[in-house]
Design goal:
Blueprint (H helix, E strand, L loop, with lengths): L8 H29 L49 E6 L9 H4 L2 E3 L4 E3 L13 H18 L3 E4 L11 H10 L4 E8 L9 E5 L3 E2 L2 E2 L4 H19 L13 E4 L3 H4 L5 E8 L3 H7 L2 H20 L1
Parallel strand pairs: 1-4, 1-5, 5-10, 6-9
Antiparallel strand pairs: 2-3, 6-10, 7-8
Helix pairs in contact: 3-8, 5-8
The chain binds zinc ion.
Length: 304
């Protein structure tokens, strides 16, 4: 027996309206829950204020913490759905708030073959555009493109923490997420005249908590594809001061690489202290190209 069939018409109408209202509430709540569960981990999306010109680039490691969702159908990063089932961890280097937490970020952490600062403030352009703002902006642009291609994207930070995370935690986030590919985003702070991008690959390090033996090979493949696609998308040349024109470097002093158990590289998108590079890094249109190159490089690696 179905409810309402014996009620007078106006009661039936009211009952129908109640049912509709209840359905709207249920659907709305469901949508909200889905949105919450696929969000950024609750952080405000906008924390990208410029920081003062400060410390030269000292790379820190990479780990990650907040999740990605599936919205923003904007993409040019690859065929739609080609990254379905893949997990990509993006580590926006530094944190806009690190400069207010000098003591906390100077704490030493174990990176396997050494001890290093928890995190650093990063560099900035001569006009004060902070590396930490740059890395967050490009990371968010890349996230949109990667999600549109079907990937699950996890951030290590989204400007939503008071500082950090520390380099060892940045690595741990990628490991815990079982990332198929992890990328730590940076821009360099070298001398004027030093130009171009380079990708940093993990060296073989087996020491204490560090063991990169299983990721050296795949990380090199990731790095090569990333360098090629980044160059094509941005038109930028590989670094003229690191990597002898290859756009590739290998380092053993980065906690974010040493402690990673998933394929991972760093990218230094350009030199913030060079006026010509800075003009690109501060241009949102160039940053979109950079995000596209990054997305295409990761897509290449994950689909071949
Ligand atoms: Zn950096």
């Amino acid at each position: 027996m179905s409810n309402g069939s014996t009620l007078p018409p106006h009661r039936r109408l009211r009952g129908t309206l109640l049912v509709i209202a209840a359905a709207v509430v249920v659907v709305g709540l469901g949508g909200w829950l889905v949105w919450r569960s696929s969000g950024d981990g609750g952080g405000p999306p906008g924390a990208g204020q410029p920081a003062p010109s400060r410390s030269a680039e000292k790379e820190t490691g990479g780990t990650a913490g907040s999740g990605g969702g599936s919205h923003d159908p904007a993409g040019k990063g690859g065929p739609r759905g080609s990254l379905k089932g893949k997990v990509v961890v993006i580590d926006p280097g530094h944190n806009p708030h690190n400069r207010d937490h000098g003591q906390e970020i100077s704490r030493q952490v174990d990176i396997g073959n050494d001890r290093k600062e928890c995190d650093t403030t990063g560099t900035s352009t001569n006009d004060g555009y902070a590396e930490a703002s740059f890395t967050l902006d490009v990371a968010r642009r890349a996230r949109t493109l990667l999600q549109d291609a079907g990937a699950k994207v996890v951030f290590t930070q989204n400007g939503d923490r008071p500082y950090g995370p520390c380099v060892d935690e940045r690595a741990a986030i990628g490991n815990k997420a079982h990332a198929d590919a992890a990328l730590s985003l940076h821009a360099d702070g070298s001398g004027a005249g030093n130009r171009g991008f380079h990708v940093i690959l993990p060296a073989r390090v087996t020491d204490g908590p560090a063991d990169t033996a299983s990721i050296v090979g795949p990380s090199k493949q990731l790095g090569k594809r990333l360098a090629g696609r980044f160059r094509a998308a941005t038109g930028s040349a590989p670094s003229n001061y690191i990597g002898r024109g290859t756009g590739l470097d290998v380092r053993s002093d980065l906690g974010g690489l040493n402690l990673s158990t998933v394929p991972k590289v760093f990218i230094e998108c350009g030199n913030m202290r060079d006026p010509k590079d800075a003009a690109q890094l501060t241009d949102p249109r160039w940053r979109q190209k950079a995000a596209r190159g990054i997305t295409e490089g990761i897509t290449d690696f994950l689909t071949h």
